[in-house]
Amino acid sequence: MSGGQEAAHVRDDSNALAPREPYPFVPLEFVRIAAPDSLTRARDFFEEMNKRRTTRHFSSEPVPRELIELAIRTAGTAPSGAHQQPWTFVAVSEATLKRRIREAAEDEERVNYTGRMPPDWLDAVAPLGTDQNKPHLTDAPWVVVVFRQIFGLAQDGGKRTYYYTQESCGIAVGLFISAIHHMGLVTLTHTPSPMGFLATLLERPDNEKAFLVMPVGYPAANARVPDLRRRSLEEISIWK
Ligand code: IYR
Questions:
Q1: Domain range spanning residue 65?
Q2: Position 28 in a domain
Q3: Looking at residue 67, which CATH number applies to its domain?
Q4: Cβ atoms of 141 and 60 closer than 8 Å
Q5: Going by CA atoms, what residue is nearest to atom 6 of ligand 1?
Q6: Which of 83, 105, 217, 237 has its CA 20 to 30 A from that of 142?
Q7: Confidence (pTM)
Q8: Distance from C-alpha of 25 to C-alpha of 22, rounded to nearest angstrom
Q9: pLDDT digits (tens, 9 = 90+) for 8-36
């Protein structure tokens, strides 16, 4: 395809209130993989993903920004409702900002663990051994905070309804986690609650709500994980 033709297909989706014209349709780029190769690739990918673990113990060893950029670009390939791409990834490496995020998260979690949350909540998280201390928020070289755009916002403040933003952000985060694992790093899906402090600290606009916090880095040399078991295929699937 020539440069000129490509340019004709570029569409600016950044302005949420741009006129919605039909996308030009182009041939799908698809390379058919032979069935035996598909099986090998499927097995290899499952084996790789099955080795992924969430850890709370991070090394402070630096991670190049380009790796985080690539994980975010991978996340940005996610399908989204009406292709509205309702996500913003804020990648934080500044020590002061990470410390402020940690302090605010610990303030909220302290209240959660010491009375705000009901006994059922404490019971549910007890096996994981979590508490109000969140050292991963300052140990990890990167803290990526995902914001969900609850509606589209134009320069003039006009709003556009966004669809399936929870699902879209969930899928994008899944791809982000997979990319991080594939590049040999670890992450943790951290959910401080409530998360309102993140929009304030990170100066996000009114249409963005914090969705998830993901410290990213290398595991600490003594990183530990709970010895948990994943549900089997039989337990998670029904075939008809
Ligand atoms: N968000 C709290 C508690 C917590 C909740 C769930 I659900 C977990 O899977 C793990 C922890 C915290 O981060 O400590």
A1: 56-226
A2: no
A3: 3.40.109.10
A4: yes
A5: 125
A6: 83
A7: 0.91
A8: 9
A9: 334 445 544 456 789 999 999 999 999 99
